[in-house]
């Protein structure tokens, strides 16, 4: 899983002609190999692996998570030698190429397969542990809201907006050959990591960061096409947050402590649940160890009171 990660980050994709697809249909295996051996790859893989181990051993807590998110942001977002990690382009560019009939590079395909593969191995292991813009939003979300209360967006609404943006972008590609996200980078904050400071980008990133004080990962839940893809895939992930119903005492501490809108759906064993970014807060909060980042089906026990008061 680690090995496929790095083309996403090594390739970047920002800047230039902005397409990331016009490099002559490069299918040179050696260029992929050199990407896989880059520092970004090794570090990204180690961080994802560390996340999985911490979640599996329930060693994750708020302080460790915050430190690791700062490290992810600095390593893959700030340091120039790491260039631009652009998971957004890894998803959008192949869609554009498919619709327009242009060539898809091996590296682009590898990046897309990697994000999908990592998400199937562990729910949101890429988004939750490797993406620098996800990490930045999560760090800002640690700032206390002036009202003292964070907002959890109704998932039906946030996901409806995210799907609508994707559909509009798809129609735009059909009509013009250009996608909505990277059109003047109006919805592409990943350009930030390529040190592009245009006005529209500054407005977008500023708005997302302000919103992040109040809402957990607003860009991920409302806009990002990678978030949409990995949300679909996390429903079949091997490792994901699972409930042992026999251990759950209905205290709902996990729901109250979590920053996301996902935990109630998890403890209610809903088939469709909002994005879980594998932060581990609910696992750490549970006083009876009923939640784990585990494998297999949810363990049945007595029925929960679904009027949980969330
Ligand atoms: S959904 Fe969030 S964490 Fe995932 S790629 Fe998009 S910005 Fe990054
Ligand atoms: S608190 Fe939410 S995002 Fe974090 S691990 Fe639990 S369900 Fe996932």
Short précis:
The protein has 15 helices and two strands. The chain is mostly helical and 310 residues long. It has a two-stranded antiparallel ribbon.
3D architecture notes:
The protein has 310 residues and is mainly alpha-helical. The N terminus and C terminus are likely disordered. A two-stranded antiparallel ribbon has the order 1-2. 45% of the residues are buried. It is globular, with a radius of gyration of 19 Å. The protein has 15 helices and two strands. Helix 1 packs across helix 6 and helix 5 crosses helix 6. The protein folds into two domains: 232 residues, no CATH class; 56 residues, Alpha-Beta Plaits (2-Layer Sandwich), CATH 3.30.70. Bound molecules: iron/sulfur cluster (2 copies). One iron/sulfur cluster binds next to helix 8, helix 11 and helix 12.
């Amino acid at each position: 899983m680690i090995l496929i990660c790095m083309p996403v980050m090594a390739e970047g994709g920002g800047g230039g002609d902005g397409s990331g697809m016009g490099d002559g249909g490069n299918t040179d295996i050696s260029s992929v190999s050199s990407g896989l051996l880059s520092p970004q790859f090794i570090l990204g893989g180690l961080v994802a692996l560390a996340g999985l181990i911490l979640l599996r051993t329930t060693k994750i807590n708020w302080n460790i998570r915050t430190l690791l998110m700062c490290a992810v942001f600095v390593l893959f977002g700030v340091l120039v030698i790491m260039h631009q990690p652009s998971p957004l382009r890894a998803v959008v560019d192949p869609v554009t190429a498919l619709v327009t009939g242009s060539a898809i590079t091996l590296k682009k395909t590898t990046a897309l397969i990697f994000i999908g593969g990592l998400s199937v191995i562990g729910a949101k292991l890429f988004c939750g542990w490797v993406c620098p813009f996800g990490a930045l939003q999560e760090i800002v979300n640690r700032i206390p809201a002036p009202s003292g209360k964070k907002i959890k967006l109704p998932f039906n609404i946030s996901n409806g907006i995210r799907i609508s943006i994707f559909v509009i972008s798809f129609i735009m590609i059909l009509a013009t050959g250009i996608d909505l996200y990277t059109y003047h980078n109006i919805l592409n904050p990943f350009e930030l990591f390529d040190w592009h400071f245009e006005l529209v980008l500054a407005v977008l990133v500023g708005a997302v960061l302000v919103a992040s004080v109040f809402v957990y990962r607003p860009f991920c839940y409302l806009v990002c096409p990678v978030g949409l893809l990995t949300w679909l895939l996390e429903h079949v992930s091997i490792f994901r947050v699972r409930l042992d119903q026999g251990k759950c005492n209905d205290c709902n501490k996990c729901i109250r402590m979590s920053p996301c809108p996902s935990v109630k759906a998890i403890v209610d064993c809903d088939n469709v649940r909002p994005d879980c970014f594998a932060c581990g807060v609910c696992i750490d909060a549970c006083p009876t160890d009923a939640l784990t980042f585990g494998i297999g089906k949810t363990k049945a026990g007595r029925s929960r009171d679904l009027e949980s008061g969330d």
